[in-house]
# Entry
Amino acid sequence: MIKNSSIRVGGTVDPSAEPWQTPWVPESPQDRRWWRWPWLDELRRRMSYLIFVQKPQDLLPVVPQSDLVPALEDRHIEILVQVCGEALKSNVDEVASNLVNEVDRDFVHMWPGEHYRLLAGFAARLNPQLAIEIGTWQGAAAAILSRSSERVVTFDVVAIDGIPGSIPELLERYPNVSQVVANLLDDEIWRENSTVFSSADLVFVDGPKDGVFESVVVPRILGVMKPGSIMVLDDIRFAGMQDLWKNQISFPRIDLGSFGHFSGTGVVFR
# Structure
């Protein structure tokens, strides 16, 4: 420790004191420097909040499973083990080959790390009469779900043909897939389509993660889904999804991100 020195933040000090023992004496108004004015201290305090502003798609740590209630039952875990087994056996080459861009084809093959083979596992285990997707994007997930589902309905605010890099002629290649172009955040549109969700065996939600859409739409969907059905919820480790995942869902659930998407793959048992 350096002796015979002092630290002056404001006021007067005792030069003989150790730095951590330096007493502080209030400055007189005449001695106060401009950078010590109270209004400037308040401005610094308020500006400090602007150093980091969390955005809805910032990744956060995994929510501990012990924080989620109600707890999973043995039958839920049995289904998950079977799903992962089916994912391990799945082959997504045909779907990947239909994508335009090589990087997108690589994403479809990536497992763990991406959710496409896990979705194939869910479809193979459940054999849904109706699977629903929210967020068509390039159509890869809908195509994968279609192989083990009697019918797939995919919702998006943009028609599949208007999405860059999408599977060409998706609806023609996979005739059991249909797309609904609509925003489920709209109350009237939701009322028109709510009965469709009540018939679904599997619902995959891959929406905008903007901190608004999922917090409204996901509870609506879960409220009408039939017992025994399953929801797969993408990107639950995003900041904008944390409150929804932890506090707004009242059904057994687990983050299966280690066997799905690195940004979190939530599985909700209805």
